[in-house]
Amino acid sequence: MFELPQGSSSAVDGQDDDHPIDLDKSGIQNAEFCHLLVFLYDQDEVVAPAPMEYFLSILKLSVLWRIPTAVKYVTNQLPTHPDFTPAIQIQLSRCRAHMGVVAFYKLVQLKSTITEFKAALAFNPPDVHHSFSCIDENICSRLWESFWWGGYAKQLLHPDNTKPPAAILLEVDASKGILSHMPPACLQNTMDAIWEDNPFNHEQEQIEEASRAISEWMAALY
Ligand SMILES: [Zn+2]
């Protein structure tokens, strides 16, 4: 059953009692096979959240035997599973038999890329573009950097922050806090230069690339 191709004259594993399906020969654990049977025939009895082994067994065997509904079931359940750690995601992404290799890898990669990108953005304040009316460029630049590190970067890197980098900057109220002491023309020039350069595009591109990979993967399940 697990070997391809099988000639028309040879007996098929599982055909009769003399030719049983030999799971050991194929490297499949009894527990893995039992988990697949539970999913196929007794799913209602599974108490949530089922252990990770349950999902990983189903995933392994359903990819091997091409059971797309089972693959889809697992990939729908895993992202909300409490034990779906980055380590498990990487482990799955390295599994050659798994169709979602690109998608899982992209998800893990995306998260670390965005974290790195945010850190780089936070710790590298954009240059100030001073206006002709700027009286003291040093003080002006220091005000900007204080705002960037003490306000912008702090909010961007806060563990509870869900806003994208661009949104945080757009919501800045320049009439309050440190920025209110900066010459308005310098602030305007600086903001204009930031939006012209648009360093925030990078994050959007990464998200779009990962979304594409995940869509392709989902489409491949049918
Ligand atoms: Zn200035």
TrEMBL record:
Residues 1-12 have a biased composition (Polar residues). Residues 1-21 are annotated as: Disordered. It comes from the Eukaryota. This is BTB domain-containing protein. It comes from Mycena rosella (Pink bonnet).
